[in-house]
Amino acid sequence: MKRLVFFLPLAIAAIIGGFAIWGLSGDRDPSRIPSVLISQPVPAFDLPPVAGIDTPGLSQADLKGAGEIVLVNAFASWCGPCRAEHPILTRMAEGQGIKVVGLNYKDKPADAAAWLDELGNPYVRIGSDETGRAGIEWGLSGVPETFIVGADGTILYREAGPVVGDGLKRLQRALDAAKSAE
Length: 182
Known about the structure:
single chain
């Protein structure tokens, strides 16, 4: 019994240390959060437009069977990484002809309108998700997140975090694969 009492703290420390080493290992990327929505149809949602912006709202019907690949970008004016990826999304929409729609997540409409007025609006549709309910349906872990939705309304890919650097490379590879599969 005395040995058990002596070795128990040592065993607990070893277990905690093992999890710490596993968590910090180079083989594990904490930004790669799996999504259960991949290969599933877009979730049911219907969002009004952002007040003060002349862009229509966004709903499931706009994505389901759209007949083309669509990027769905969850963003907010209060999100620093969203600002960093915004010029890239704009170039993708204007330069590559990719249809980009926005899900404005837990944002004040006036702030979102000012942000888009300042940075430009690459979105053909923007849904205002002030309560965050649609974000729950999409399985958002935060903003920004970008989804590739296939022509048939199936979610093909999810990039958690800004589409800059490695995130942009991953998104572009997934987008190229989606286009070639059409």
